[in-house]
Amino acid sequence: MVSPTSLTGSAVAEPDAVHDAVTTWYAAHARDLPWRRETATAWHVLVSEIMLQQTPVERVVPVYEAWIARWPTPGALAAEASGEAVRAWGRLGYPRRALRLHAAAVAIGERHDGVVPDDLEQLRALPGVGEYTAAAVAVFAYGRRHAVLDTNVRRVLARLLEGAGQPAPSLTRPERLLAASVLPPDDETAAVWSIGLMELGALVCTARTPSCAACPVRGACRWYAAGRPPYEGPARRGQPWAGTDRQCRGRLLAVLREAEGAVAGAALRAVWDDTTQRERALDGLLDDGLVVTAGPDTYALPG
Predict the structure, then answer these.
(1) Across 179-265, where does the E strand assignment appear?
(2) Residue 264 pairs with which residues in a beta bridge?
(3) Which long-range contacts (CB under 8 A, 24 or more apart) does 31-35 make?
């Protein structure tokens, strides 16, 4: 591992030069995403960050835009039943995120007078908000100086600073310290640096086919200087979908989302043949609060 204070490499010798390269590149190449526009509020950023967890940008944009049009503030969402959040979540996957976002909206109203807080600890105390999401909201919505460590940022920093093709499977304390140590000293530049690293990882320094020729910090990258050695850490497993409990849960929820009200159990049984798996998935949905019983063998989204 390189020194936590080092942002030097084979060609670029000054940390400021690396910071400038990333922020200048971002100004020229940033995607026009709705949650990055000047009209976006901290609530908009929070919604986008929850939706973007394990979900590609292109799938999130239309759902996000419909969500913000309907619920432009935390109070607007909190005023509706949590089941409406699940319904509006559509096919984004991991629908418990919808319940947590609804719970966060309620908490923001109760604890913060309807305004998304800018303090890391207060953000982390909101339902469904973890270390990354709290930092992302504080930085991207309020311009605070914190390290924001999603998969893309971790990969860029692993290559740039440590010469590793991929970061460790789990975020470590040394990794947090290293990321914090290379933040630009002023809040404004640090915020742009953070989002610039994220965009660089999404568009250029990708996991499988990095475009090193287009990278603004190639000259400072230890991984590139080492000849781009392959990743030799633990195998990274993809998540299967077809035939899994997740797919079954999705099918059951789709029936409930599309219904006007309660649904007879027969309608759920019709969409999945494996009785044992279907009942296990339904029990899980009930335990998670994504589905409620509305009568004998009758089910609905939470009211």
Answers:
(1) 263-264
(2) 298
(3) 31/57, 31/199, 31/203, 33/57, 33/61, 34/61, 34/64, 34/65, 34/68, 35/64, 35/140
pTM over 0.85: yes
Question: What are the residues whose beta carbons fall under 8 Å from the beta carbon of 142, sequence distance 6 or more?
Answer: 42, 118
Residues annotated as catalytic are 49
Give the Å distances, CA to CA, from 242 to 106, 168, 236, 285. 35, 28, 19, 18
d(CA 280, CA 69): 35
Q: Do residues 269 and 298 make contact, with C-beta atoms less than 8 angstroms apart? A: no
Q: What number is the average pLDDT over the span 248-260?
A: 93
Cα–Cα dist 124/104, whole Å:
10
Per this entry, what is the length of the chain? 303
Q: Could you tell me the CA-to-CA distances from 158 to 70, 183, 290 in Å, in that order? A: 40, 15, 38
Any idea which fold 245-300 has? Arc Repressor Mutant, subunit A (1.10.10)
Torsion of CA 24, 30, 36, 38, to 10 degrees: 60
Strand residues in the chain grouped as ranges (E): 263-264, 292-295, 298-300
pLDDT, mean over the chain: 92
Yes or no: say if 223 and 164 are a contact pair by the CB < 8 Å rule. Answer: yes
Tokens of 160: 């740039």
